[in-house]
Amino acid sequence: MKNARALRTMGFLAPLAVMAMWLAIGLGHTASAAPGDLIAEVTTPEGSGWTWARGISPSVAFDGQKLYYVEYAGVILHRIDVPPAGGSTPAANEVDTPITGAQTGIMSISYDGGRGVFWATSGDGLTIYTLTKGGVATAQLKIDPVSDRPGFETATFVNETKLAYDRSDDTIWYSPDATRRIYHYQTTPDALGRAALVAATPYIDVDMTAECGYSQSSGVVTGGAHLFVSISGCPRYFEFTKTGLKVGSYPMTVQSAGGLACDSMSYGVSVIWVKDQYLGQLRAYEQPSAGACVTGG
Question: Residue 43: which CATH number?
Answer without folding.
Answer: 2.120.10
